Amino acid sequence: MISLGIDPGIATTGYGVVKSYNDHFSCIDYGLIKTKKTSTPSKRLHILKEEISSLVEKHSPNIVAIEKVYFFKNIKTALPVSQAKGVIMVTFEEWGVPLYEFTPLEVKQSITGYGKAEKRQVQKMIQLLLGIKKKIPDDAADALGAAICGINKTRSPF
Question: What is the phi/psi pair of residue 15, to 5°?
């Protein structure tokens, strides 16, 4: 199974592609999609849609796992991130890839066994699970965590 994890954002969207086989995980790809602050909001969303489509075309994921956005400290951030998430969700619908949403607590629980684990603990566990030695950018690490969570949550128990 190939899972594409997404950590949505308008300026920076993290992505991570994870393959599972025989209860093992391997990292296929991860990174950041960045848009310019000086671009119009519609241009930024269009770039995001195009980049997400390229990832689907390149990796042919079986599922997509995206982090639920449910709390914001700053309303100025909430609206653009929600717009980005909407574009991302529609893009996967167009491609026919099943999309699953998980709260940060669910992702942490799936990765570390503890839903209130610290961000650093989660990132370290992701590195261990995927055999990545170098530091992963935060948004990409969150996306890889979502991808692993997606596999764990959708895997058949039989």
Answer: -140, 150
